Amino acid sequence: RGCSIQRRRQKIVEESPAPGIDEALRSCIHAAAIKFAQAAGYTSVGTVEFLVDSSGKFYFIEMNGRIQVEHPVTEAVTGIDIVEIMLSIANGVSLSDDVISATIHGHAFEFRICAEDPFYDFIPSGGMITACGFPQGACIRIDSGISAGNIQPSIYDSLCLKLIIWGKNRNEALLRAKVAFKELYVAGLPTNIPFHKWLFENESFSSGNYNLSLTDSFIPE
Fold this sequence. Notes:
Strand content: 25-35%
Oligomer: single chain
Shape: globular
Radius of gyration: 18 Å
Structural class: alpha+beta
Strand order of the largest sheet: 1-2-5-12-10
Helix content: 25-40%
Distance between the termini: 31 Å
Largest sheet: 5 strands, antiparallel
């Protein structure tokens, strides 16, 4: 998964497969992640994170021994229910050949919709959600924790919902996402939806040629 769209070093957009990484580099990163988990004797679901520099070298950051917020991205491109797999492992069930030999099909994005104001340095913004509406249709998944009338606090995690989009390729997934955002709304408090819409107009994001500095180029005006 590519997770380079961040603010305060926290992810807000993820995609799979990661753009700007060829198959050879992806295979090396994959092998390193497995080697790390084996060396640690880890036997459940987890995520190993790396940084990749402009020369294609990659460096270990950390391992998270848990379900990640962006796990639906991997589920979308593999067809595997990762939560189910985690529970199966906990029950002593061996991984099936389908899971071990899983491959990526198509391209997927996850957009985190957060109660924060992108026009004021993404500051968390609490309040009552007065109305909300979610896009529907094939290749769209919504993981939501909100509904009209909910109070969204500003002192905890600002995540409201996740919009996951799948396409046969990156361009198709982007087009579907752009249409989905025309149907998505959360009213009553500021959210980062305007930032996500800005991304679709950003050439670096559209081309997949971006890095951790992309969010810094967002100008509130």
